[in-house]
Amino acid sequence: MAQPLTLDLGLAKTEKYASRDSGDTVEIVERPGGGFSVVMIDGQGSGRAAKTLSLLLSSKAVALIKEGVRDGAVARATHDHLFMFRHGQVSATLDLLSVDLKTRTVVVTRNADAPMLLDDGSGFRTVEVNSGPIGRYHRTRPSVQEFPLEEDLTIVLFTDGIPHAGRRARLAPLDLEAFANEHFGPSRSSQAMADVLLAHVIERDGGRPGDDMAVVALRIAQHAEDRFVRRMQAQFPIT
Amino acid sequence: MAQPLTLDLGLAKTEKYASRDSGDTVEIVERPGGGFSVVMIDGQGSGRAAKTLSLLLSSKAVALIKEGVRDGAVARATHDHLFMFRHGQVSATLDLLSVDLKTRTVVVTRNADAPMLLDDGSGFRTVEVNSGPIGRYHRTRPSVQEFPLEEDLTIVLFTDGIPHAGRRARLAPLDLEAFANEHFGPSRSSQAMADVLLAHVIERDGGRPGDDMAVVALRIAQHAEDRFVRRMQAQFPIT
User: Fold this and answer.
1) B228 in contact with A, Cβ within 8 Å
2) How much is the pTM?
3) pLDDT at B68 over 90
4) Helix or strand or coil: residue A64?
5) Nearest in space to A179 (alpha carbons), one of A161, A148, A150, A201
6) How far apart are the C-alpha atoms of A172 and A187, rounded to whole Å?
7) Which segments of chain A have a pLDDT < 70?
8) Residues of chain A with C-beta less than 8 angstroms from the C-beta of B58
9) Using 50, 70 and 90 to split pLDDT, how confident is the model at B46?
10) How far does the CA of residue B3 sit from the closest CA of chain A (Å)?
11) Count of CB atoms within 10 A of residue A207's CB?
12) Which of A209, B46, B92, B219 could serve as a FRET partner for A20 with CA atoms 20 to 30 Å apart?
C-alpha cells in the first residue's frame, strides 16, 4: 500500500476596498469519482454585477463537476453558456483545481490571466497561462496541466488582483517566485500560505485592496494521524 | 452598524470500519443571495452504493441551492427525485444548514433521524426531529427551524452513526446534551467541537466505527480581526 497522504487545502479572499460584494467566488466540492475540485471564478468588474456573474458561472461549473463531467468539458460548457447568453460582451476567469483519485493526479484547468505558483520538488516557480478568460470569443478552450499526486507537490492559484496589487502606487511588480520561495516553507499549512500572500498584497495596495482578491493553496503532505478523518473549516466574517 | 460577527464552521467525518467509501457526504456552498449552506446527506447502507446515492443527492441539492431555490423546496425536490427514480425502495437523510444574510437567520431544514444540538444562549439542549428520511413515502416534507443570527448561537448536526455509536457493545446511550455542555465550551472552535465529538463516538465503537459518521458544527462568534477575510480549509487523507 502507498504511503498515506493528506490533501491540505487553504483559501483566503477579500473584496475590493469599499465594495460590499466580491466578484471572486471559490467553491470546494467532492468529485463523484473520488477526490475533490476547487472552482474559482473572477467575474469581470467589481461589486454586485461581478458577484452575480461569478455566482452564476460557479453554479454552472459546480453542477457539472458534481454530475461527473470531466474538467475540460466543464470549462468549455461554462464558457459556451456565458458566450451564448451574454453575446461576447462579458468575460470571467475560471480555474479548476482537481485532485482525481482515479488517476492519482492533480489537474489544473485554467481560463485565466494570472500565473500560478508550482513547487513539484525543486522550489517554487511561476507557470504562465496562455488560455485567457471565458466569455469573449467563439470556442475558447482551457489550458490543462496534470501532475502526479506526490508528497510535497504544492500549487497556489490566485485571481489577477494578486499580481496587480501595488500598480496604483506604481510599485515594482511583485516577484511571486521569490515571495513563494521565501514565505512558503515546507512546514507552512496551505491556509498559512494563502494568508501570508493575501496579507502581503493588501499591504502593497496600502491596506485598501484595488480589486477583489482570492488565493487558493493546495499542498500534498504526509498523513500524520493514525485515523482517517476528513475535515473542513470555514470562517466567514459578516457585518 | 451591527457588531461584526464571524460564522465559524467545522466538519469532521469518517467511514464505517473496513469500508473504503463513506455514504455520508457534506458540502459547503455559497448562497447566491448571500451567506452559505451546508448540505449533509446520509445515504442508506454503507460502502459504494451508499456513497453513490449520497453523491447523487448532494449533487441535486447543491445545484438547486446555487440556483437560488429556497431550502424547503430543495428538500422537497431532492426527495421527489429520489422517490420518483427509486420507487420508494431507497432512503437517505438530508440536512440543510443555511446562514441567510438576507433574513439574518440560521435556517435548519431536516429530513433526518438523529437529534441536533442547539445552544441559543442557555446551554446546549438536544432538539429532536420529527420529519424522517427522504425517499420512502409520497410527498415527504422537511422540518424547518429558524434562529436569529446572533453571537454565540451554536448548532451541531450529525448523522445517525453518532448517537448509535456504542450500541454494538451495549453501552448506555450517549447523553449528547451532557457531552456538549461538558466539552463544547465557549472558546472551542467549531472544528474542535466536531473533532471531540467524533473522537468520542469512535471510542465508544472500540476504535472501529460501526457506521459512516459525520459531524457539522456552526458557531456565531464575535469578529476578532480588523480585516474582513473569508477563509476555508480542508484536509482529506488518502491512501
Assistant:
1) yes
2) 0.95
3) yes
4) helix
5) A201
6) 29
7) 1-2
8) 30, 66
9) confident
10) 7
11) 10
12) B219
